[in-house]
């Protein structure tokens, strides 16, 4: 279905299948197309409220015996949904914008980092297109910084030079996404959004854009799918 009927369809489907929000179908589509989450994956969900992506992430890990872990962070205190989630899912109430990378990494299994980072963060929409897009870009840049580290974003070549000279970047500047890991970031479409694709393409094996079918027709949401951190 499309147009005005689509939101009603996905809302009804979410209720029928036990998802806490229709946004579950966005991640379900991404998982079907890109297969980002595998058995044993460690997943970080930024802006996890109300918990629909926690549900899909946990489902995608397979049975409990397969292992893996899902950690959700949000400004709000988020209760782990009872359906589609198990003991591998936990949430943290914190401000991602002010959370040091070392503290985020400490939330990962053996503090080794995450294999998948999901960012569905969105600003409080004001209705002013340029303002909302700028706030969305700020959240997106924070997700990217957490994943790969500020040095990698600013200049990957300089980072390699520092490492070859034996002068590594500061511990808190390293990202929390594992080598080979995947990153999903939500943005509000604007002229500046393509800049993120340009930044990510040298850092990942592949970077592409997706507007999921479950996105409301009136929404400007678009997702950057980054696969295989180099």
Task: Compile the SSE list and pairings.
Layout: H1 5-17, H2 24-34, E1 42-46, H3 52-60, E2 69-74, E3 89-93, H4 101-105, E4 114-119, H5 129-148, H6 150-154, H7 156-164, E5 177-188, H8 194-200, E6 204-210, E7 221-229
Parallel strand pairs: 1-2, 1-4, 2-3, 4-5
Antiparallel strand pairs: 5-7, 6-7
Helix pairs in contact: 2-3
What does this structure look like?
The protein is α/β, with parallel strands linked by helices. It has one domain: Rossmann fold (3-Layer(aba) Sandwich), CATH 3.40.50. Helices cover 34% and strands 22% of the residues. It has eight helices and seven strands; from the N terminus they run ααβαββαβαααβαββ. Strands 3-2-1-4-5-7-6 form a seven-stranded mixed beta sheet, sandwiched between helices. Helix 3 links the parallel strand 1 and strand 2. Helix 2 runs parallel beside helix 3. The chain is globular, with a radius of gyration of 17 Å. This is Ribosomal RNA large subunit methyltransferase E. It comes from Camellia lanceoleosa. Keywords: Methyltransferase, Transferase.
């Amino acid at each position: 279905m499309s147009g005005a009927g689509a939101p009603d369809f996905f809302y009804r489907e979410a209720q029928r299948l036990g998802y806490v929000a229709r946004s579950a179908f966005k991640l379900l589509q991404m998982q079907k197309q890109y297969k980002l989450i595998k058995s044993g994956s460690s997943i970080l969900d930024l802006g996890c409220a109300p918990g629909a992506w926690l549900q899909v992430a946990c489902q995608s890990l397979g049975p409990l015996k397969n292992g893996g872990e899902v950690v959700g962070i949000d400004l709000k205190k988020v209760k782990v949904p009872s359906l589609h989630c198990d003991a591998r899912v936990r949430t943290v109430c914190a401000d991602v914008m002010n959370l040091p990378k070392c503290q985020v990494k400490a939330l990962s299994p053996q503090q080794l980092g995450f294999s998948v980072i999901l960012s569905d963060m969105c600003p409080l929409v004001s209705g002013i297109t340029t303002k909302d897009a700028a706030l969305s870009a700020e959240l997106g840049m924070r997700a990217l910084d957490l994943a790969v580290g500020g040095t990698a974003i600013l200049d990957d070549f300089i980072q390699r030079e520092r490492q070859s000279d034996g002068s590594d970047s500061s511990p808190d500047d390293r990202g929390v996404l594992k080598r080979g890991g995947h990153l999903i970031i939500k943005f509000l479409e604007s002229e500046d959004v393509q800049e993120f694709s340009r930044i990510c393409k040298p850092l990942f094996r592949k970077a592409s854009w997706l507007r999921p079918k479950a996105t409301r027709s009136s929404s400007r949401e678009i997702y950057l799918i980054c696969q295989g951190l180099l």
